[in-house]
Amino acid sequence: MSQQTPELDLQLWLDQEIIPRQNRLKSQFWELLSRCANTVPSENLLRIHSKSGGSKLSRGNDLLGFPYQVLDLIRDFDPESGLNIRVLNWFGHGLYLFILIGKKHVLATERDFQDHEFCFCTTKSAWNYPEIILDEKYNPNPGQEEIAKSKLIQWFKPIQLTANTSSIEQKISLELKDTLTFIRKCVG
User: Fold this and answer.
1) pLDDT number for residue 2
2) Domain boundaries, given as residue ranges, for the chain
């Protein structure tokens, strides 16, 4: 019994520009996210959440076969009292802002996220981005009961982009600033 081998795309294989182009773009986004992180002083994060771990950039190459980059602010992932703000740059899919909140955090019962165009995630895992984004496992108008029953409190929204690099950086920085201002008002 013979197995057929799929035909190899030798034209793509010999394309010497495609990988350098993708790498340049990943590098540009990395630098852009780094500049956005640098606009948020650690002191501001500590005022919002005393257990803040600051900011951190990380990256991966395979989220459903696509590279991604993550900017985390605050970085307290405690399921009871933690708080994390994440910018997810998922190549081929978009740019998203996530807020992960511990069940006993003061923000856990906050419903004004909806006024800031956030949707409530309805997945069992905070990290299942394909399910949240592609399978649309979220509720734009959750009731208090749904939030209270959820084992996971996470809100998210897409960050709409334009082609201009400086406006992309401004858009991300503005989203972060607005979100941090809103959260700071909520936590007092």
Assistant:
1) 59
2) 18-187
